[in-house]
Amino acid sequence: MEDTQLESVLDGLAGPGFVTLPTAWPLGDVDALRREALEGWQDGSFHQAGVGRGGGQEIRSEVRRDLVRWLDPEAPSEAASRWWQWLEALRTELNRHLFLGLVEAEAHLAVYPAGAFYRRHLDRFRDDDARTISCLLYLNDAWSAEDGGILRLYAPEDGRAVDVLPAGGTIVLFRSDTVEHEVLAAGRPRVSLACWLRRRS
Ligand code: OGA
Ligand code: MN
After folding, report:
1. Which of 53, 65, 66, 131 to mutate to test the pocket of ligand 1 (most atoms within 8 A of CB)?
2. To 10 degrees, what angle do helices 78-98 and 27-42 make?
3. CA–CA gap between residue 156 and residue 112 (Å, rounded)
4. Residues lining ligand 2 (ion), CB within 5 A?
C-alpha cells in the first residue's frame, strides 16, 4: 500500500470514520471484476441478498434489492487475487496503526439491477460484532450522477450526509459499527465489491 493512500485511510477512519479514495484501483482489474460480476449475475449464480445473519437471515425487498455472490478466497481470478492481497495489506496496517485486532476478510460481488436500492443501515449485526471495517470497491464503467445508485454516508459526528458516486476504481472505507449508509436507487445495473475486515466476535 502506498504511503499517501495509507495516510488518508488512517486519517479518515480515526477521524470522521470514513474515507473515499477516488481512482484508487487499476481500471484493467476493475473491468475484469465487473465482467466476472455481470457474467455471474446473468448466468444465475448470484442470489438475492438477505438482511441479518446466519439462520436469522431474511429476504426483505423493502430494505434491499441487490443480488450477491461471495468471493471464494481459495479460487480467485487474477484480478480478485490482487484485491485479496491489498485487503490483507490493509488489514495488517490497520492493526499496526489503529490496534483493531482484525483477523480476517470477507467479500462479495453485488449487482443492483435498475431500480434496486439498500435502505439506511449499519453493517455490524446486532448479534455479532465481528465486522469492524467496511470496504467497497466500485466496478462501474462511465457512471454519472444521472445513473443514480449514489452511496450516501451519514457522518457519525453530526449526521451530515456525504454522497459518493460509485465510479469504477473508487474505494470507500468506513467503520462498520458507527457509519450508517444507504444506496439510492440505481438507474442501470450497478456493480460493486463489498468487503468487511473482521475481528473475533
Ligand atoms: C452493503 C452496502 C453499499 C454499496 O453491501 O452493506 O452497504 O455502495 N453496500 O454497494
Ligand atoms: Mn452496508
Report:
1. 66
2. 110
3. 26
4. 123
Full-model pTM? 0.97
* Helix H or strand E encompassing 14: helix 3-14
Which residue, judged by its Cα, is nearest atom 10 of ligand 1? 192
pLDDT digits (tens, 9 = 90+) for 27-52: 999 999 999 999 999 999 999 999 98
Ligand 1 pocket mutation pick from 46, 183, 195, 197 by most atoms within 8 angstroms of CB: 183
Backbone angles phi, psi at 62, to 5 degrees: -80, -15
Give the orientation angle of helix 3-14 with respect to helix 78-98, to 10 degrees: 60
What b/e sequence results for 141-165 when a residue is b if at least 16 CB atoms lie within 10 Å of its CB, and e otherwise?
eebeeebbbbbebbbbeeeeebebb
